[in-house]
Amino acid sequence: MDRQILAKLNALRQGRQAAILVTDLSGGPDRLVVEGDVLEGTLADAAASAFRSGKSSAVDFEGRSFFLNVHLPPPRIVVIGAVHISQVLARMAAHAGFDITIIDPRTAFATPERFEGVDLIADWPVDALKERPLDSYMALVAVTHDPKIDDEPILQALLTGCFYVGALGSRKTHAGRLERLRREGLTEADLARIHAPIGLAIGAASPAEIAVAILAEIISSLRGRDVSLPKGAKP
């Protein structure tokens, strides 16, 4: 691999930006495609599919064969609220291949005993996210029912372009949330990106069932996201 391409690829990986190393199997030069680059034809379709699935594969393009080696940032779920749903979601997310972080300033809930082995931050989200900012390969799940805790990370997630933003609460609760976020300057298009009520509509009732619905919706959003947008752009 060309040293300049390798250096750029390493920089992209360090910055949690998705890229595909396109290798010409007939011996031509390698090419690096970054998520959001404008492509055409068969290569565009193959690259979009690879970015969504994360799977490397060979593809024929203009009479030649290429290998698409996909490099995706590890997807991360950031949960605001150390509640019962979060306990189940943390275990399931790990099995599904997601890194997960739980943030909650309420130290009675955010305890190592309740979240053994989980990346747990017992601090206000606004402070925690200054140290560990959100990005487009993160899903934001807000489940505290407390606007003082949930609203700011939801706002940040929408402005950052997180691939998924979900919030727990009734329709009445969500209507109030939307009004508060409008006052912060968010557009209707921004607000439409919030999944609320959170999770796929499977009739979930218990914390475990709600966690299943949330994780399924996160996976659906990750695999179906618009990969034509550059990193950090809002869908």
UniProtKB/TrEMBL annotation:
Domain of life: Bacteria
Gene3D superfamilies documented for this protein: NAD(P)-binding Rossmann-like Domain
Domain XdhC Rossmann: 77-218
UniProt feature coiled coil, ranges: none
UniProt cross-references to Pfam families, sorted A to Z: XdhC_C
Entry protein name: XdhC Rossmann domain-containing protein
